[in-house]
Write a structure and sequence with these properties.
Elements: E1 8-12, H1 16-22, H2 27-47, E2 52-59, H3 67-90, E3 94-98, H4 106-119, E4 126-133, H5 135-151, H6 160-165, E5 176-179, E6 198-201, H7 211-223
Parallel strand pairs: 1-2, 1-5, 2-4, 3-4, 5-6
Helix pairs in contact: 1-2, 2-3, 3-4
Bound molecules: 3-methylbut-3-enyl trihydrogen diphosphate (2 copies) and magnesium ion.
């Protein structure tokens, strides 16, 4: 059966810590393996002409993690892009982000902004990293944005399209939301954009979520009947 890949897929990349613990390794080893897996899944999604892949990398709630773990997480973007930016460029992948970079160390911020800049002309997969991202935070951001536009007379009235347009990026509605590691919750991810997303929760940890697992999700998605409230 040939698979039809949805245009916008979002993934809650969960289970790095448990993956590491199961192998008697420190949690950081799980985060490293998890970041390597971003490359695998991004290349695969790009090869199948997925338009956008939005990946939850660090939530507004993850500041509650121990300093040591956070410091390691903040180093990962540098390690990742140093190794893979050339390949991403070659593969026509465009890197973007949603979230507030301001609270991150300057080096982390710069390396992400640099990856965005270096790939901005690419027309393949939009690889969007959600960093210091929270769905509620994004809605608050959109409201404040709209207040500015109302004050300046740019808009008079708010509707759904307007809210979508004032979010942190051009992030379109999500077709398929995948969460790895067995948790069945949304954890404040893309609250507005998942209104009609199909959701798939898989038990495998993110570092083990390979192309085959990905295709199993796509296959399941292909069997879903998306009615959007109508009849089909
Ligand atoms: C996801 O893996 C990565 C981040 C939240 C940064 P976790 O670190 O949450 O791994 P588990 O859920 O503890 O196994
Ligand atoms: C969600 O995972 C955030 C990311 C994957 C970045 P968490 O592990 O932080 O979520 P909870 O705590 O299980 O809800
Ligand atoms: Mg987790």
């Amino acid at each position: 059966m040939s698979l039809e890949y949805p245009s916008h897929i979002a993934i809650i990349m969960d289970g790095n810590g448990r993956w590491a613990a199961a192998q008697g390794k420190p949690r950081t080893a799980g985060h490293l393996a998890g970041s390597e897996n971003i490359r695998t899944i991004a290349l695969y999604a790009n090869a199948h002409h997925v338009k956008s892949l939005t990946l939850y990398a660090f939530s507004t709630e993850n500041w509650a993690r121990p300093e040591e773990e956070k410091n390691y997480l903040f180093k990962l973007p540098s390690m990742f892009f140093k190794k893979y930016i050339d390949e991403l460029k070659r593969e026509n992948i465009r890197v973007t982000y949603i979230g507030e970079l301001t609270r991150f160390p300057e080096a982390t911020r710069k390396v992400i902004e640099n990856a965005v800049e270096q790939t901005k002309m690419n027309t393949g997969l939009n690889l969007c990293l959600a960093v210091n991202y929270g769905g509620r935070r994004e809605i608050v951001y959109a409201v404040n944005n709209m207040i500015e536009d109302i004050k300046s007379g740019k808009i008079q009235k708010v509707d759904e399209t307007m809210i979508s347009e004032h979010l942190m990026s051009e992030t379109s509605d999500i077709d398929l939301l995948i969460r790895t590691s067995g948790e069945v919750r949304v954890s404040n991810f893309l609250l507005w954009q998942i209104a009609y997303a199909e959701m798939i929760f898989v038990s495998c940890a993110w570092p083990d979520f390979d192309e085959k697992q990905f295709d199993l999700c796509i296959e399941e998605y292909n069997h879903r009947n998306r009615r959007f409230g109508g009849l089909k």
